[in-house]
Every structure is written in structure tokens, then in C-alpha cells.
Amino acid sequence: MAARSLYVVALTLAATVARADPPEYQTVVTAATPLHGSGLPRDRLPSNVQTATGEEVAANRGPDVADYLATSMGSVSVNQVQNNPLQSDTSYRGFVASPILGTPQGVSVYLDGVRFNEPFGDTVNWDLLPSQAIASVNLIPGSNPLFGLNTLGGALSLETKNGFAAPGASVELLAGSFARRQVGFQVGSSHGPFAGYVAGDIFAEDGWRPDSASDARRLFADATYDGERTRVDLGLVAAESTLRGNGPAPIELLAADRAAVFTHPDITSNRLLMPTLRVESRLSADARLSAVAYGRDSRIDTTNGDQAGWAPCPDQPTRLCATDDQGGQVPLADSRGRPVAVDPDRPYDAADNRTHTDQRGYGGAVQLALEPLVAGRENHLFLGASLDGSRDRFSAESRLARLDATRGTVPSDVVSLPSRVAVDATRVDLGLFASDTFALRRDVFLTASGRYNHSSLSLEDQLGGDLGGDHRFARLNGAAGVSWQPRPALGLFAGYSESARTPTALELTCASPDAPCRLPNAFVADPALAMVVARTIEAGARGSSVRPILRPILRLDYDAAFFDTANRDDILFVSAGQLTNEGYFTNVGDTRRRGVEAGLRARVALGQRGSSLVVSARYTYLAATFGEDFLAPSPNHPQAQGGQIAVHAGARLPGIPRHIVKGTVAFGWRQRLSLAADLTGASGVHARGDEANLLPQVPGYLVVNLRATLQLGPSLALFAKVANALDRTYSTFGVLGRPADVLGPSYQDPRFEAPAPPRAGWVGLDVRY
């Protein structure tokens, strides 16, 4: 009833503001396909697309694009699984775009028409995205087939700047809490048909928890030729980072010290080199050809200190054993082949897990846009094809280790042979797509689209094991919808869309309940997984009105939408085994993410000298539930029977809040001073491992961030930001584990939480030329 009432209120609001066609109404162009040459006015699209400019992203003063999404975009929430500002587990409408290997992904991310998700696990490394170079952000909802595989719940399409649109130079300096320091720069210039643009930054901080220092270096460069008919862009993204994130800790430990770390280190080192070539040619007044080609060289190395995964051998209690692929016990041996003895005085009570992922990708896309009038009516036809390929090498091993006084791991030279993995994955994805938007009348637009995907994935076990295999997936997905925009202040839309996700190499080799994997470095020969198919229906209203109120001018923008996405054969990571990061991937049957989202933004122009007041609010009600009964392994759950819990249809998915709220109040005075307060909140979530919803939730939160900018002169500005200004104590993620194995028998509560940072502040200078 609450969702239905909110929807009715939004429609009533739309009818109220639709009294006059505003003379200052501005058309918002959005990306209809990954290639930005396919831009269409938002009022033509049958979905609740959200957009933002690069200036809005920069004004947030966050460390990356994900921070802006979490603060300002509707239906977006964050799980700080790693407790690192550059490793956000970002969720949109209950679907995740995460840098954490092993998180089932459901949002595709594109940068200048190139898929940014990593080939091996579909992860999104936010730390490698050059946020200073972002020109526009388009968040496209639903299972849009045009954005290809993995677009189960939405797509994020980013476009970068160039020397024509961003002339001049700027330097930004920032420093403050957690010893964070950041230097960023931009330089753009043009001469005749040629332009150049370079942007980059260096980020470093010590973190707010022990052993959590991180650094990142990002560079983006673009050279542009813009002739009479043809435009060519040659771009390059180069980035590297070393991120330390200490994830969830037992709630009993956090009660004594919110900054406490369970075990460490947890280090991820990323490197990316990605050149792109984009060409857009106007063939005629109504025809345009767009193409993009790219190469990709990325490397990911991880080091993770964790609890021990071995125990005395059942038949030889004086020797240590590890679990093999079939769930049996294998005696451990050192590098000389000698058995590893149980040492009660200096036990091997930890594991040092290391992985190396080397990914070489390539691909491209071509698209023809035909936009002549059909029967005297507006029509936009897009035809295209894409090809993406990669050759990935993954290796991993676990070494026996001991915990020091800080619960850091000290590795030995003993490698657990069952943990060794070396697998090569070759993947090729082919897509053919078409879309047409036709004006049935001047204010009614009908859209129909479809995409055929064919994917092949070949695995080669380099150690002679059983990980090899060939997998093929193919599917035709479609979408259709209608948008009615009789006035700028009143618009209605409705649509249906479907898309699919193929299992990743990681999921296909970690899918056995008999031999759970310790993410991200334990692969076994497992049963095949089915393709996930998502179907979304969406309906809503939107509009914009500009009206004089006495002397000020009020601009009012609103949107409201109902959405329902049903996943068939959804793939989730199910906790199993004794460790917090141990489990397996499985098709859990049907899941559903249904809800209502609404947004309202009012801007009042105060006088003739650039002063203004902006007030915005967004709310999302989201019910993310399992659609079928099943038994989930959860040996750390206090109510487990035989190591399992019964999950019933209707139980909520872990980690996804039911309510998400956001709001902003911003005041600008004569373009000299700006003050803003941002409110972000989410209701409680269930912990991973408690799929049955039997334990108390991780409590919800409501935090306030403050921003201020003072223009000291034409080229110099001073800015400040305070995060969590009220110093709230809260967590964003939960998982079940066994704290007693590390902390002792007095720690019995299996609940682990990822604590959020305390109050923090930063100041900086922005110099522009």
C-alpha cells in the first residue's frame, strides 16, 4: 500500500505542475546504446534514466565515481565490504557493480562505449576510472538488452571530456582526515579541427583502521580530430593502485574498538592500460556511422591473510591435512616433501592467500544510426554489432601461516597443494543489436529493441586437473516500451525489457557444495551453471516545469517509477565451510527485485546575480526476495541443522536494504559561495549466511555530509567537505563467521559487520587558468 500511495502522489504532482509549457525547458540527451553517438532526448525513452554532468561529479569532492553514485543517484546503495574508499560494493535496484571478485554482478559499466567490467569475473574496479575526466553520467535502469551481457538491473554509461569541450587548465589539491591527500589536474586545448585533453590524479591515505593505507594513480589522455563530416578520438586510460581494505570484523570485537581488524593483510594491486579509438562519421543529414575499437591489458594481484583452513588429519592426528576437491583430507608437505607436523606450541593458525590475474582483452563495436522521417514522423533507428574477446590467466595458492600479535599473517614456505590453481580462460562475446524509436504522434514515442548474444568460454587447467572445459551460451533478448510526453511538465512511460548474464570463469569453477571455495583463490571442477535471465517491467511519470514566482524563478523536476525485475536461475554466492569468505556459487532459482523510486528537485533562482537555492530528495522502496524454497549451507549459523538453513520463498536477499533515502539542500550566493548538506540513509540488511532471515539485521543508518566552496578570485577557490558530520556509528554489510578460532572461546557471536568510517573532514584548493 505504501508503494502504491507513493506512486499515486507522484502522478498527482505531475498533473499539478503541468499547467504551462515553460519557456526555459531544456532537453536532456541520454545514451540509448553504449555508443554515445546514439543520444536521444530522455522523454523519448520508456524508462527512468538518471543523468549527471562532470561538474556535478566534481562538486561532490569524492574519491571516485562510485562515491557520487552513492550520494546522489536514486536507488543506489553501498556495502563497504572492504572498508576502502576506492572499493565500494555499489548496488543499484538490488543489482551489484562491485570490485570484489566473487560478487555476482548485475550492472554493466561502459566508458566511451567500451565495456569496463573486468573480463574474468565481471568486476568493476572503481579505482581505475579517471573521475576528473568524466563529462557525463547516464544511469540506465532495467534489463536493457542493448547494453549486452550482465545488464540484469541496469547499465552505467560514462563519457569523457575532450579539448573542445573542456579548454583551459586546472589543479586541485585536497588533504585532511585519515592522512588523505590528493592532487588532480586537467589540461585541454584546441586549434582548428584538432584538440587535446589530459587529466589525472594521485590519491593516497593511511585509512581509519590499522593496516589500511592505500594509493592510486590515474591518467586519461585524449586526442581529437573534428572535421566537417568525421570525428576521431584516440583515448588512453592508464591507472595503477595498491588498496588495503580490512573487511568485516566480529561485532563483539567492534563493540570494544570500532577500528579493530580481525585479520590482515588484505591487499589488492590493480593495473590497467586501455587505449580506445572512436570514429563518428556523418554519412548524410539523416545517417551517422559510429565505431569504437579498444585494447585492454589489466593485472590484479591480491594478498589476503585469513583464518586457517587446515586441521589434524583424521587418521594421523600428528599431521596437518587440507581439504581437496572432493572434500577429502590430503596430508600437507613442505617444499622438500616432508610432512607438516601439528605443533601445539606454534600452530599454523592462519593462511596467506595469494592470487594473480592477467587479462588481455580486445574488441570493438560498430553502429549505424538512421533518423529520416518515416511517414512524416520522427524516427530513430540504430543497427549495430559488437565483438569482445579476452585471454585471462589466473593463478592462486595458499601458504600456511601464523598470526602475530596484531593478527597479521606471517607466511611460511609451506604451500597447500590442494589450494594451487592455474587456469587459463578464453572468452569471446558476439552481439548483434537493433533499436527503433518511432513517433506515433508528436508526443507519443514507441521503442522496440533486441540483441542477440553468443558467448563462448573455454577453460584450460594448467596443472593437469579437471578445471578445463568449453561452455557456450546464446540468447535473443528483447525490449519494448512507450513514452508519452504531452507537455514538458507531464510525461508517462512504461516498458518491458529482458537481458541475460552468462556464468563467469570464477563461478563455473567454484560451484560445488561438497568443496567450498575460499574466495577468491580456490577453484575446483564443478557442475555447470545455467545462464541468468532477467525480465523487467517498469512504469512511471516524469516532468519539468519552470514558473515565475514573484521575482524568483522556480524550476521543478520530478520522476517516479515502479519496477519489477524477476531473475530466472539467479546465481548467488552461498556461504559454506568454516570461514567467512568460504562458499560456492549456485543457481538458487528465481529471485525478484520489486520497488518504487521517486525523486523531486526544486531550484529557485534568487535575484539576477547568480544566487540560487536547490532542494532535492529521492526515495526508493525495494523488496529483494528469493522466489523459491531451498536449503542453504550455513555452518556458522547458530540455528543451522546439519550445517544448513531452510530458506523460504519471500525471504529477503542479504545485503540489500528495503528503504533508501537521499536529500540535498544547496545554497549558492552570487557564484562566490556555495553551501550544501547531503543526507544519505538506508534501512537494515540481512547478513550473508543468513539467507533465511533468522538473525537480527545489520541496523540501518542516516548520515549527513557537508560541502562548502568559497571563490577567492576568478581562478582560485577554497573548498571543504565533512563526511558523516554527526559522527554516526553504523555498518553497511554483514556476514557470518567463526571468531573463536582466532580470538578465543569468549567470542561466540558469529555475526561480523563492516564498520563505516567515523566523522572526517578535508579541505582543498582549486586553481583554474
Give a brief description.
With 769 residues, the protein is mainly β.
Query: Spans of 5+ residues with little confidence (pLDDT < 50)?
Result: 1-25, 518-528, 577-581
Number of extended strands: 44
Strand count, sense and closure of the main sheet? 22 strands, antiparallel, barrel
Category by helix and strand content: mainly beta
* Silhouette: globular
Which range best describes the helical content: under 10%, 10-25%, 25-40%, 40-55%, 55-70% or over 70%? Answer: under 10%
Contiguous helical run count = 6
Rg over alpha carbons: 26 Å
Through-space gap between termini: 55 Å
Mean pLDDT: 88
Strand content: over 45%
Verbal overview:
- The structure is a single chain.
- With 769 residues, the chain is mainly beta.
- Helices cover 6% and strands 55% of the residues.
- It has six helices and 44 strands.
- The strands form eight sheets. It has a 22-stranded antiparallel β-barrel. A five-stranded mixed sheet has the order 3-9-10-7-8. A three-stranded antiparallel sheet has the order 4-5-6, covered by helices on one side.
- It is globular.
Question: How would the blueprint of this fold be written?
Answer:
Layout: H1 2-17, E1 29-31, E2 39-41, E3 50-53, H2 54-59, H3 65-72, E4 76-79, E5 89-92, E6 95-97, E7 107-111, E8 114-115, E9 134-141, E10 154-160, E11 168-176, E12 180-191, E13 194-205, E14 214-226, E15 230-244, E16 249-250, H4 251-256, E17 266-284, E18 287-307, E19 310-312, E20 320-323, E21 329-331, E22 350-370, E23 379-403, E24 409-415, E25 421-441, E26 444-461, E27 469-487, E28 490-501, H5 505-508, E29 517-518, E30 532-548, E31 553-568, E32 571-575, E33 582-587, E34 591-606, E35 611-626, E36 630-633, E37 644-647, E38 659-669, E39 673-682, E40 701-711, E41 716-723, E42 731-736, H6 740-743, E43 751-755, E44 760-768
Parallel strand pairs: 7-10
Antiparallel strand pairs: 1-2, 3-9, 4-5, 5-6, 7-8, 9-10, 11-12, 11-44, 12-13, 13-14, 14-15, 15-17, 16-43, 17-18, 18-22, 19-20, 20-21, 22-23, 23-24, 23-25, 25-26, 26-27, 27-28, 28-30, 29-33, 30-31, 31-34, 32-33, 34-35, 35-38, 36-37, 38-39, 39-40, 40-41, 41-44, 42-43
